[in-house]
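Teaching assistant here, posting this on the class forum so everyone can see the example we discussed in section. The complex has four components, and the goal was to see what a joint structure prediction looks like when all of them are supplied at once.
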Amino acid sequence: MATRRERVRAETAAQIKDVARRHLVTGGPGAVSLRAIARDVGMTAPGLYRYFPSLDDLVRTLVGDLYDELDACLARARDALPAEAAGERAIAVCRAFRAWSVAHPAEFGLLFGSPPLSGDTGALGRQRLGGIFATLFADLWTRYRFPVPAGLDPGLAAQLDAWRASTGTAAPTGAIGVLLGGWVRVYGLVALEVFGHLRFVLPDPEPLFEETLREFAELLGIGEAYRRP
Amino acid sequence: MATRRERVRAETAAQIKDVARRHLVTGGPGAVSLRAIARDVGMTAPGLYRYFPSLDDLVRTLVGDLYDELDACLARARDALPAEAAGERAIAVCRAFRAWSVAHPAEFGLLFGSPPLSGDTGALGRQRLGGIFATLFADLWTRYRFPVPAGLDPGLAAQLDAWRASTGTAAPTGAIGVLLGGWVRVYGLVALEVFGHLRFVLPDPEPLFEETLREFAELLGIGEAYRRP
DNA sequence: ACGGTACGGTGAACACTGTTAGCGAGAGGG
DNA sequence: CCCTCTCGCTAACAGTGTTCACCGTACCGT
């Protein structure tokens, strides 16, 4: 199907994104320079414009690819466990999220550490990532029916209801609030760790992360699903 | 004491940082350009080198100033309430942190959304910010003696002990862990909100933030200290 | 009050950056 | 086999951070 031209074109495009990412991880976001990329690829700068309409566009598609990679990584961690073990699956996905983020701090900063760029290509990836957590939420609920607090703020309940309707999740409003709180904890801890804001309090945040997972499992009444890594 | 030269010098330095910050908030971190700043100040670019040894250094001192501003803001929120009301004080500081962050997203991104720069001038401000929360933690503990979970991971306990020793906080290890968990939740929620990663789930994160504060107050057994804003 | 000095600012220059325009060679498809 | 269209090139423009040599002027000590 793909003509030979198209194949080699896709290949060099992939190579361009590859060296762009290498520059990102070695020199930070400011080191992603069109001309430097072109040098490493073996081209001159204007040649890159045959593949990407601008540098911003290049990093945008790079962001999209990174979302894809993270999504795939989390999905793999989830599918490595049987579907019935919803609690173990959720814990595994959280661990995979932290592992990926710590292993790829520059990429994490690009995905989660800055306001989304204007021409937002990452929206799809972010939506798919939200989808992973949505199904995770639904599975947790259908499997365990953990206790949910009553008396939610009506404004909050309305927003959660709207999201539940848009995603078709089965869990009740309160459950979604509880699970969202868990995601906030996981993200907060990982972001603090990756950005180095915990370095002088916790040189190694891993035990606190595990403690957070364990506490959250117990909050859901599924403490037995938690096992030390 | 200050000679006339020193006064006018400090004044123009402040003006430079001022327009740098204005460029930051209007055009993002990439818009902080030496020559553009010089234009707005009414100088040529090399003139700025009489005040800052490099552009990186300028943004570093800007980061330091922003930490100072945030510190002062939080301290003001804390001191607006009587010292005995430790719970109300903690809640007020958390609200002030969110309010400042939401009102200054670009500055928040610079402070908390990227790995600390190499020549780290923000270390002092971050340490002072940590100090604010440390005294907050100590006050919460001496005032309420909330229940602390037993059976902490030994590796985690060792790190928390080291931090407690370095700051001279009075609270026991488990209490520090609980309070650190609260900070993780507050930071996580605020970062998610400021970076726009919650927009498609919660258009208005304020109710969830308030719910988080209320839950945490109840976790500490001081639910009566929480009042709707 | 005057002379020396150090400070603050300028213009030119260098090495970069992203981006556009125009051109040529070579591979692909008819 | 020839036409075409894609690809990569060079040249150029505007803008960036940074350094250098220079100069006027405000300050300071005598």
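For the discussion questions: The mean pLDDT of chain A is 93. Chain A has nine helices and no strands. Think about how each of these relates to the inputs above.
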